[in-house]
Design a protein that fits this description.
The chain is an all-alpha fold. The chain has one domain (about 1-75). Helices cover about 85% and strands about 0% of the residues. It starts with a helix and ends with a helix.
């Protein structure tokens, strides 16, 4: 019974982790696509850094938290 519960928790954590990775990939892809469309010449490092700050920080933090939780569950 305990093994089944652990297995279920691992599967749920894995699913949540995969969803977070997909969300993060979407955010990064969207950001890169916007950058490519707006970019007509090479940008400076400062301009690149400014573009990175436009990423939805809350969504990024959620994805990182999900990854950390997944890794903690996996380590148990």
């Amino acid at each position: 019974m305990m093994e089944q519960n652990d297995h279920h928790q691992r599967r749920a954590a894995d699913k949540e982790f995969q969803e977070s990775l997909n969300q993060l990939e979407g955010i990064l892809h969207e950001s890169l696509t916007e950058n490519e469309e707006a970019q007509t010449e090479e940008i400076t490092e400062d301009e690149f850094d400014n573009e990175l700050t436009d990423i939805d920080l809350a969504a990024f933090e959620d994805a990182v938290a999900d990854i950390e939780q997944y890794l903690e569950e996996k380590a148990k």
